[in-house]
Amino acid sequence: MVEHVREDASDPNATEIAFAEQSRRLADLGRGFYSRGWVLGTSGNFSAVITADPLRLAITSSGVDKSELAPEHILKVDDDGKVIAGSGRPSAETLLHIAVARLRNAGAVLHTHSVWSNVLSDAYAGAGGVSISGFEMLKGLEGITTHEHSEWLPIVENSQDMPALAHAVEDSLRRHPGAHGFLLRRHGLYTWGKDLAKAKRHVEILEFLLEVHGHSQK
Amino acid sequence: MVEHVREDASDPNATEIAFAEQSRRLADLGRGFYSRGWVLGTSGNFSAVITADPLRLAITSSGVDKSELAPEHILKVDDDGKVIAGSGRPSAETLLHIAVARLRNAGAVLHTHSVWSNVLSDAYAGAGGVSISGFEMLKGLEGITTHEHSEWLPIVENSQDMPALAHAVEDSLRRHPGAHGFLLRRHGLYTWGKDLAKAKRHVEILEFLLEVHGHSQK
Amino acid sequence: MVEHVREDASDPNATEIAFAEQSRRLADLGRGFYSRGWVLGTSGNFSAVITADPLRLAITSSGVDKSELAPEHILKVDDDGKVIAGSGRPSAETLLHIAVARLRNAGAVLHTHSVWSNVLSDAYAGAGGVSISGFEMLKGLEGITTHEHSEWLPIVENSQDMPALAHAVEDSLRRHPGAHGFLLRRHGLYTWGKDLAKAKRHVEILEFLLEVHGHSQK
Amino acid sequence: MVEHVREDASDPNATEIAFAEQSRRLADLGRGFYSRGWVLGTSGNFSAVITADPLRLAITSSGVDKSELAPEHILKVDDDGKVIAGSGRPSAETLLHIAVARLRNAGAVLHTHSVWSNVLSDAYAGAGGVSISGFEMLKGLEGITTHEHSEWLPIVENSQDMPALAHAVEDSLRRHPGAHGFLLRRHGLYTWGKDLAKAKRHVEILEFLLEVHGHSQK
User: Under a CB-based contact definition with an 8 Å cutoff, are residues A45 and A91 in contact?
Assistant: First the structure.
C-alpha cells in the first residue's frame, strides 16, 4: 500500500483503475483485520475515496464475512450512499463514512469492532471520551510529532437512526477538530487517513493504545 | 460460504453433492476456529443439516484434532445419531446437535470450547445465564435489528448422560425461545443458524461478546 | 497425526522410517506451538519414542528457534541421553524426557513455556500444585471419561542440576500417579501421551485450562 | 537464521552479499513481529551490523508498515546515521541503534512496541526499571546459565531529542552493564544480540517475561 492511488474525476478510465485497485486493497486490509479479531461476525466496514468531487466512495457491502472479503464485495457509492457500481447492499454505515470523509477530507475511512474499543467506549461513556497521553505510538497519528500529545477519542452514543447518528458524528468531529478517531459506544472505532495506508496505520495505533489503556486500568 | 447449499431429499445425487460441499465447508470452518484457540485438544463439534425431513446431519467425527479437520472426518448421521456414511465415531454430542437442529429449525449447529465461554459459564452459573445488552455486535444475531437488545445466554449444567443433557438443552431452549445460543457450564458455547455462514457469524459474535464481558468485569 | 508410527526394534529399516516420520511430525508440532506463543525464544523441547526397549528417543536439539524447527533439528538419543544420530546438542532437558517416557510408558513427551504455565506455577508454588476440576476439557486427558474429575498438576521446583531435577520429577510422578502433566515452577509445562497426537492433545488441553484458571482468579 | 553472516570490511563484495542477506532476514523478522502485534502502525525498527569498523548498519527505513517489510525497505547507514545505500529515510531512532551497537558490541539491535512493554514501562517508571527473577526463560539471555538470575530492565524516559535520548540510553547501558535490554517509557523495548538470531531470541524472551509479569500483578 505504498503508492497513492491517483484520483482523476476527468478521466473515467483512471477512475475505473483506481476503483479496481482500491477494491483489492480494501479486501486485503479487511482480511488482515479479521485475522486480528477486529472485525468478527461480519462486523466492520471500510471505504476509500475514489473521487473527492463529486464524492465517490469504494465501500464494503453489508454483511460480508471479513475472512472472505474480496474485491467483488466492494461497491462504488455516490455522496447519497447510492450504489453506482457493484452488487450488494452498501454498508449500513455508509452515511457515516461519507460524513467522515467530507468533514476530515479523508482518502479512506475504516471502522473496526474490537474487544477493547467495546470495553473502553462503555467504561468511559460517562466521561464522553478516552484520553490517551504520552505514548510514542501517538506519533504515528497524522500531524503529531511528539509523544507529548494528549489524544482525546470522543465517545458518541450509538444509534440505529443512521442520519441522526451521522449528525451526531459530524457534531463531535466539529467540536474535536484534532481528534484522529472516535468511538461509538458499545460498537467500535472509526478512524481515517489521507489514504488507505495512513488510515490502516491509524487503526493499528488506536487499537493498540486502547488495549494498553485497558490493561493499565487493572 | 455465500451460497445456500440446496437440500433436496427427493434427489439423492443432489444430497450427495450437498454432503460433500458441507463437509468441505465444515472442515474449513473447524480449522479456522482452531486457529483462534476455540477448539483446542480435539474439542468442539460442528454440524450442518443435509436434509431436514428425514433429518440427516453432516457432523464431525469424534476426537479429531481440529487443526487437521478434513472432509474425510465428516460423517452423515440420521435422526438417531446413527452413522449412515463416512467412517469414524460420530461426535459424542450428536444428540445435542439433533436436538438443537430440530427445536430451532437450524441449518447448522456449532459448538466451541473457548476460554471465555468456560470462564463466564462458571462465573454466572448461579445466575443461570449471562446477560449481554446494548452492543452493536448483537445486531448480527438473527432477527435482531438494534443494539438495544438484551440477549440472555442460558447456562445449562454439564452432564455425561447425553440423553439427559439433550433434554435439559431442549428444556432450556423452550424456556428461552429468543436465545441465540446457550452455554454448557465449564464446557462451552452452542449456537446455530439457518445455514453454516449464519451459524459461523453467531459463533464469532457470541465469543466476541463473552470476551468483552470478561474484560469488563475486572 | 492420525496413524500410530510403528516401533520395531528388530527391524532397523522400520526404525529409520519411524525416526524420519517422527522428526517430521515433531517439527510440524513445534512450529505450531511457536505460533501460539508457547515456545518462544528457543524454549521448549519435544520428544517421541522410537523404540521402548532399548529406549531410543527422537528429541529436539538444544537452542533451536521453534519457528524454524525442521526434521534436521531432531536427534536420536539413547537412554543415557547420548546422541546416536543427527547433529547438534540434545535438549538440555533430555534426562527429563527419558524419566517421563519411562515412568509413564509414554510414546511422546512435550514441554512448553507458556505465559499461563509460568504465571500459575509461581502463584500456586506454595500449594505445591494447581487443582483443576469440573471442566469438560478434562475429558480429553487419557483415561478420563467425565468432567467430574479433579486434576492435580504438581509443581516441581526448578533446578539447573538436571539429574537432581529428573529425580524430583520422578518422585513427583510416583506420588501423583494419576497426574497427566506437571509444572516446573517459573519454567513451564510437561505432559506426555501414548503417541505424539495424544501428547499434543494433552498440551492443548492443559494450556487451555491454565489460561481459563488464570482468567478466573481475577 | 542459523549461520552467522560474515562481516568483512576488506572485501566489498562480501559486504554487499552480507547486506543483501541481512536485509532479507530483517524483513522476515519484521513481518513475524508484526504478526505477533509487536510492531503495529509502522512502529518498531530493526538493524544488523554489516561491518563493525567502520560501523555500517543495515536498518529499516522510517514509517514502513511492518506487515509488508521487504528487503527494499532496508537501508545501509554509516556511524553518523547517514544513508550510504538504499532509498528512504532511515529510522528516526538510528542514533539509538548506533549507540547500542557500539556500547554492547552487538551484531543486531531490535526495537519493538508491544502492549506489555508499554504497560510496564509506565507502571514501573517510578522505580526506574522492571526486575524479573527466577524464570527459566532468563537462561536464553546471553551469558545467563541459570534461572536464579535477577534481570533488571532499566526504564529510560522517552524524548524526541534523539541525540539527548541516545546519551540517556548510553548512560543507562553504562550504569547497567549486565542489562540485556531496556525500556523506553510509554514507548517500547530495545534489545540486541551478537547476531540477528540471538537478538530475535532476546526480543521473544523479554516480551514473554513482560507479559508474564503483567498478568502476575493482578
Answer: yes
pLDDT band at B91 (very low <50, low <70, confident <90, very high): confident
Nearest alpha carbon to residue C55 among C106, C1, C111: C106
Indicate the pLDDT class of residue C11, thresholds 50, 70 and 90: confident
Cβ pair B166, B95 in contact under 8 A: yes
For chain A positions 158-197, those within 8 Å of chain B (CB to CB) are: 158, 160, 184, 186-188
- D35, D199, D28, D43: which is closest to D117 by C-alpha? D43
Long-range contacts of D35-38 (CB under 8 A, 24+ apart): D35/D67, D36/C37, D36/D114, D36/D207, D37/A36, D37/A208, D37/D114, D37/D115, D38/D112, D38/D113, D38/D114, D38/D203, D38/D207
pLDDT in tens, C40-82: 999 999 999 999 999 999 999 999 999 999 999 999 999 999 9
Beta strands A188-193; A108-112: pairing state? antiparallel
Residue B42 near chain C (CB below 8 Å):
yes
Interface predicted TM-score (ipTM): 0.94
Cβ within 8 Å, pair B134-A186: yes
* Contact between B156 and B124 (Cβ < 8 Å): no
CA distance B26 to chain A (A): 15
HSE of C157, CA atoms in CB hemisphere, 13 A: 5
Contacting residues of B for A44, CB less than 8 Å apart: none
Residues 6+ positions from D65 with CB-CB distance below 8 Å: A1, A197, A200, A201, D42
User: How high is the pLDDT of residue C218?
Assistant: 56
Nearest to C146 among B160, B214, B218 (CB): B160
What are the residue ranges of helices labelled H in chain A? 12-35, 94-103, 115-123, 162-175, 196-216
Average pLDDT of chain B is 94
**DSSP one-letter string for A125-155:** GGGTEEEEES-GGGGGSTT---S--EEEEEE
pLDDT digits (tens, 9 = 90+) for D46-84: 999 999 999 999 999 999 999 999 999 999 999 999 999
Rounded CA-CA distance D119/D140 in Å is 23
Whole-number pLDDT of residue D3: 42
Find out whether C206 and C183 touch, Cβ atoms under 8 Å. no
- All chains having 3 or more CB pairs closer than 8 angstroms to chain A: B, D
CB-based contact, B13 to chain A, within 8 Å: no
Residue of B37, B122, B188 with shortest CB distance to C216? B122
User: How close D135 gets to chain C, by Cα (Å)?
Assistant: 5
Neighbours of B151 (CB within 10 A): 22
Contact B158 C137 (CB under 8 A): no
Residue D184 C-alpha cell reads as 523506553
CB-CB contact of A189 with A169 (8 Å): no
Distance from CA of B160 to the nearest CA of A (A): 31
Place of cell 472426518: B73
Count other Cβ atoms within 10 Å, centred on residue C39. 31
CB within 8 Å of C161: residues ≥ 6 apart: none
Tell me the Ramachandran region of residue C63: left when phi exceeds 0, alpha when psi lies from -120 to 50, beta otherwise: left
| Residue D194 near residue D125, CB atoms below 8 Å | no
Closest CA to D71 of D18, D110, D24, D1: D24
Could you tell me if D115 and A216 are in contact, meaning their C-beta atoms sit under 8 angstroms apart?
no
CA–CA dist C169, C207 (Å, integer): 19
- Would you say C140 and C149 are in contact if contact means Cβ atoms under 8 Å apart? no
Sheet of strand C129-133, all strands in order from the earlier edge strand to the far edge: C83-85, C74-77, C56-60, C45-51, C108-112, C188-193, C181-184, C150-156, C129-133
Cell 464524492 identifies what position?
A55
